[in-house]
Write a structure and sequence with these properties.
Length: about 325
């Protein structure tokens, strides 16, 4: 079996990534001491990298698979295959300005600054995404045509339009206005940190979650492809399990039909005879959202309810990888 090289993110989603790996592979070692992590599967070689780097490194074939944010795939314009949405690390990319400013959206900001011949300064870690979003505004095209905003870093200046300048932020972007810049392009979960820094959101640009991605050439390698399918199955098993509850119910024979008629289930529930005559045991998996709805039914018909959170619900059907699009299978 060929070794699969697996890049995982260091930083804000690092602990959440370790948690899903531990739930999927049972054993993760070395995480407190090194950038080289070991799973219980010896055919997977793991390394910690910054999430910003992972899409490009996977596109170039340094790694076969990885976990990163959708936001960094877009920023890098990386040609990779998205295999699975892992549904954690949820953030929004937003445009924010000081609360005392009256603008309702970025269109109004650009329009006002252009009319008054003021230089608009923007701070962001997402230079490409910010530039693309700014250029997509009608007011920008109206005043500046096809000229690209000027992107400014300590080592590089690109773009023709000096009237709209995007500065690379190395973090704490929310602290930049109003002294250093006028507008920020940043990520947020709830908006609380922005509000605490006297900023308000005026545009929501994108939403992002952590995703499992692959190098497209790696998917063409027969041995690596099968191992990657195993990895999808294990990770998807954790993602699905987090949405479910495993319940065990004891019910009298006269209440069995009523309970089954009102019991949602992932598949058809397992019904078995108990040692005491006239009693049955029901074993099933339900959506977490359904649980509160069935509590009154359980109280009416059942006895001896046990509720567990499953560690994994493995999709053992064939996993198909369509290399012509980014749908997940």
């Amino acid at each position: 079996m060929a070794t699969v090289k697996f890049a995982i993110p260091k930083g804000t989603i690092e602990e959440s990534t370790f948690k899903i790996l531990e739930e999927a592979w049972q054993k993760v070692s070395g995480k407190a001491r090194t950038y080289r992590i070991k799973l219980s599967d010896p055919d997977i070689e793991v390394k910690l990298l910054r999430p910003q780097e992972i899409p490009t490194y996977i596109q170039e074939g340094f790694y076969d698979v990885g976990i990163t944010g959708k936001d960094w795939i877009i920023e890098a314009n990386a040609n990779v295959k998205t295999l699975l949405d892992l549904e954690y690390g949820k953030v929004k990319q937003v445009i924010a300005i000081p609360k005392n400013l009256v603008y309702e959206n970025l269109e109004e900001v650009i329009e006002d600054y252009a009319k008054n011949k003021k230089i608009l300064r923007i701070s962001s870690e997402y230079l490409t995404t910010t530039a693309n979003y700014v250029q997509s505004r009608i007011s920008y095209s109206k005043h500046f045509g096809d000229e690209s905003p000027m992107i400014i870093t300590p080592w590089l200046r690109v773009g023709q339009n000096k009237n709209v300048q995007i500065y690379l932020s190395f973090g704490a972007t929310e602290a930049k206005p109003p002294e250093d810049v006028d507008v920020i392009f940043d990520i947020t979960e709830t908006g609380a940190t922005l509000s605490q820094n006297n900023l308000k959101i005026i545009d929501t640009v994108n939403e992002s979650t952590s995703v499992f991605i692959a190098n497209k050439d790696s998917l063409k390698d027969k041995n690596k492809r099968e191992k990657i399918k195993d990895m999808i199955a294990l990770l998807k098993g954790v993602v699905e399990a987090r949405k479910k509850l495993h319940i065990f119910v004891n019910v009298k024979s006269e209440n069995l039909d009523n309970l089954l008629a009102n019991l949602p289930a992932l598949k058809r529930p397992t019904v078995s005879n108990l040692s005491e005559k006239g009693w049955y045991g029901i074993n099933t998996v339900i959506d977490k959202d359904e649980f509160i709805k069935i509590v009154p039914i359980m109280r009416k018909y059942a006895q001896g309810l046990v509720v567990l959170e499953p560690r994994q619900i493995l999709p053992l059907e064939e996993i198909r990888l369509d290399e012509d699009n980014d749908k997940n299978y």
